[in-house]
Amino acid sequence: MYEALASVRAETHGNVECLIVDDGHTFELRDASGGVDVLVLRGEGRGVGRARNAGLAAARGEFIIFLDDDDVAQPHRIATLLDAATRFGADLCFGMTRRVVVESGVVLPDVPTSLLSSGRVGFCDVLSCAPHINSVLVRTSVLRDVGGFDADAEHFDDWSAWLRLADRNVAMCCIRDTVAEWRLHDRGLSGDVLQARVMKSRLLALFDRLQPQLSEEHARAVAVARRVVEANELLTYDDYAQAMDEARERLHASGQCFGRRLESH
Question: Going along 148-225, which residue ranges are E strands?
Answer without folding.
Answer: 172-184
